[in-house]
Amino acid sequence: MPNPEAPSSTLTFVILSILATAALVTSKSTIEPCSYSDSCNAMLGYTLYTDLKVSEVASLFQVDPIALLLANAIDISYPDVENHILPSQLFLKIPISCACVDGIRKSVSTHYKTHPSDTLSFIADSIYSGLVSSDQLREANSISDSSVLDVGMSLTVPLPCTCFNGTDNGLPAVYLSYVVRDVDTLAGIAGSYSTTITDLMNVNAMGSTTIAVGDILAVPLPACASSFPRYASDFGLIVPNGSYAITASHCVQCSCGPGNLNLYCMPSTLAVSCSSMQCQNSNLMVGNLTMLQSSGGCNVTSCTYGGFVNGSIVTGLSTSLQPRCAGTQLFPPLIAPPNTVKRGSMFAPAPSPLSSAGSLSPTSSVIPSTGSFPRSTTTAGGPTGSPVTAACTALNPGIASLTMVVLFMCGKLMATMFSSI
Ligand SMILES: *[C@@H]1O[C@H](CO)[C@@H](O)[C@H](O)[C@H]1NC(C)=O
Ligand SMILES: *[C@@H]1O[C@H](CO)[C@@H](O)[C@H](O)[C@H]1NC(C)=O
Ligand SMILES: *[C@@H]1O[C@H](CO)[C@@H](O)[C@H](O)[C@H]1NC(C)=O
Ligand SMILES: *[C@@H]1O[C@H](CO)[C@@H](O)[C@H](O)[C@H]1NC(C)=O
Ligand SMILES: *[C@@H]1O[C@H](CO)[C@@H](O)[C@H](O)[C@H]1NC(C)=O
Fold first, then answer.
1. Whose CA is nearest to atom 9 of ligand 4?
2. Pocket around ligand 2: residues whose beta carbon is below 6 Å from it?
């Protein structure tokens, strides 16, 4: 005698599995196809799930704590800043290296060591704040039974990133992987990051302005590009407007903005031993410049940083004639290491971590605001248009139609189920 319940529960199971798949498919992430193996620089938008030390956040992503602080314009001259406890819900930009794996851009250099009572969904949704999904963790680590996670297991955490050749509309840009939250709108995100809805839609190959919680958008941040030679270990260094980067084994610190988008590099004040930073045949050091008012304009001689090659700091002396002698070099304002998350900014995308307790320290010892400006500029103009973006446009509709197929299948199955009841 057939059990009338059996087919229906099997069917329910099938439907639930398909619905689960549909939910997965609908949480979109922008995919950038790639064909060469070079890594590029990208950012992850990360929200702290609990209070964490700077060093703990850095080790979650296996990044340099100093680089992490500077990417968020946090003053590194604070005593014991790496042990500073950052507040839960703080939003940070994590600078990462974006690789090319199996034909798409992703970061695969992050590993997580499991703790007792960790579950894949806790690791994905809380510890990595939605930047990875349980299924991606399961797949990347060939986990068949996710109910048993061995303690101390080292999990590869694949993280979404894009570079789009370091340009957006032909201008230098760094891409931030941003996890959409329930309060977000596309207009809100565009406003927070000084971009436009149109640009976000183009970059992410979106057909409409609809975004869903958990979607991961690539948000272009205007940046200052470097022009170091390909053989330099920091080739491709690119610094978002309003922030800093550290390079050359902590010897050189570069900033971007606020006045212009020319990368400005100078010796860092970290106590490390560094190779010479003096320009040949000159008494100028990296970051120094001299200005000479002449009849033709302002004759500017500057000693600039040219990359880190074989453990040595490359310097270059350049002379240019500017229309007029400019004023002081401006630096992005530094903030104190945050202690609190500003109410209201808590769930809103913040371009930089804001701290109600933090005071601005423009005259920090880290960033002396001495030295005056105009640099001979190598225009870091990128290529116009991005074939990669175009290729991506072709990808996303594919994902969308897959969703449609799954939903259609669900509909059909439900119809079948109802008719069988
Ligand atoms: C860079 O940042 C500064 C300060 O936030 C802002 O005034 C300026 O418009 C930004 N530049 C670009 C190109 O976004
Ligand atoms: C050159 O740069 C160094 C390090 O930034 C600074 O200490 C020094 O005062 C500068 N010299 C001149 C002449 O600007
Ligand atoms: C600018 O100054 C440098 C050295 O200070 C000199 O060699 C060069 O000829 C000057 N250029 C102009 C256009 O005055
Ligand atoms: C770096 O050092 C290696 C070995 O010392 C040398 O073969 C190579 O040419 C150097 N590269 C550059 C760019 O100087
Ligand atoms: C990327 O940019 C470089 C110059 O910045 C350019 O030579 C190259 O063709 C660009 N590649 C693509 C795929 O846009």
1. 310
2. 266-267, 285, 287-288, 371
Q: List per-block mean pLDDT (blocks of 10 residues) for the chain, which spans 421 residues.
A: 42 42 61 90 97 98 98 96 97 97 92 94 97 95 84 95 96 97 96 96 95 96 97 96 97 94 94 90 94 90 96 94 86 96 54 39 34 31 34 35 34 34 30
For 275-377, list the strands marked E by DSSP: 289-294, 297-309, 312-322
Separation CA 296–CA 71 (nearest Å):
39
* Token representation of residue 95: 């600078």
With a threshold of 0.85, does the pTM exceed it? no
Question: Which pLDDT value is given to residue 304?
Answer: 96
- At 36 the pLDDT is 82
pLDDT for 343 = 56
For ligand 2, atom 13, which residue shows the shortest CA distance?
288
| Closest to 244 measured CA to CA, from 258, 230, 231, 228 | 258
Give the three-class secondary structure for 184.
coil
Quote the CA–CA distance of 281 and 301 in Å, as a whole number. Answer: 12
The pLDDT score that the predictor gives to residue 299 is: 92
Q: Which residues pair with 99 in a beta bridge?
A: 106
Q: Is 383 in the pocket of ligand 5 (CB under 6 A)?
A: yes
Number of the ligand closest to the Cα of 229: 4
Note whether 268 and 67 are within 8 A (CB): no
Q: Which residues contact 65 (CB under 8 A, 6 or more apart)?
A: 54, 55, 57, 58, 82
Distance CA(17)–CA(410), nearest Å, equals 10
Structure tokens at 9: 């529960």
Q: Which atom of ligand 4 is nearest to the CA of 231?
A: 13
Q: Check whether the bond before 33 is cis (ω within 30° of 0).
A: no
Parallel, antiparallel, or unpaired for β 289-294 and 297-309?
Answer: antiparallel
Ligand sitting nearest the alpha carbon of 232? 4
* CA-proximal residue: ligand 2, atom 4 (nearest): 267
Atom of ligand 3 at shortest distance to CA of 294? Answer: 14
Q: Please state the atom number of ligand 5 nearest to the C-alpha of residue 385.
A: 14
Given the CA of residue 232, which atom of ligand 4 is nearest to it? 13
**The predicted structure's pLDDT at residue 26:** 55
| pLDDT score for 1 | 39
What spacing in Å lies between the alpha carbon of 371 and ligand 2's midpoint? 7
Which ligand has the nearest atom to the CA of 376?
A: 3
Counting Cα atoms < 13 Å in the Cβ hemisphere of 370 gives 5
**What are the residue ranges spanned by the domains of the chain?**
28-222+387-420, 249-325+365-373
What pLDDT, on a 0 to 100 scale, did the predictor assign at position 147?
74
